[in-house]
Hints:
single chain, 301 residues, alpha/beta, five-stranded mixed beta sheet, two-stranded antiparallel ribbon, 11 helices
Amino acid sequence: MMTSVVAAGNGYLSDGFYRSIASEAKVVLVKIGKSGRIPESNIETGLRWVFENKKKYDIRVVNISAGGDFERPYLHNRLCQLVEEVVASGVTVVCAVGNAGLLPGHPVLPPASAPASIAVGGLDDQNSLDRAKRGMYRSSYGPTIDGLQKPEVIAPGIWVAGPILPNTPTADQAHLYAELDNATDDELRDIIVTHHGVDKELDEARDLSVSLLRQLITIKLREGNVINQYYKFVDGTSFAAPIVSSIVACMLEANPKLTPQQVKRILIDTAERVVGIEVERQGWGVVVPRKAVELALRLRT
Length: 301
């Protein structure tokens, strides 16, 4: 879901406003789990399938927004060894570094801990274009158990707009909140009654004063990270990684001859450091899509 939404979504529900960086990329979705915790063996199985079918589907970049079971030296970890094999075959592997930056040891798990992977941490840009407001998301960071610098780069890991899955309770709630937010004061109670059962707190609060109802609606919008009835803000390095994957897709379109090693070096060389943030947390800094693609083009000649 992360890859299709962040890397290649066409922004249909927003008339193209929330169009992704590589919206015309061809995406091969590989299912590695249904819900909850995804075992490391499932990630390995999915990546093995990619490795075996890369020529059939012309796969050039793999996004992995999932983490393994525990820290382990990459030489003794089958998933990390597979990442090395996949990259050696010419496929760039981009991995979410994890969201354990506030935990003791802030562990970086496989496959992000593999030397050849591009591990991506999270940037908190405060949903602003002002670089002075940049800070860090709660990303995991190295050095890894092998002493490697991870992540290599960071990308927006919060305030990322993602479409809401239709026909779900979340979709029903977002539609209700958005409708209430745009309604007149006289319409509020009728709308809540019409949507009885969608939100228990609103059902119980429908007889409050209009001012209090407005406050509750605002709280619901913020707590649910609702942008409108179709989109909400999502967070995590699972969304930062496909942003980088989409940049890689654009780089490969600009210069199909790039190797995974060249892709990684370009992203590092064009990244921008976040002032006041430790190097080990941000790696070489925030990815800069335009600079990365421009450098990819220059290397084509």
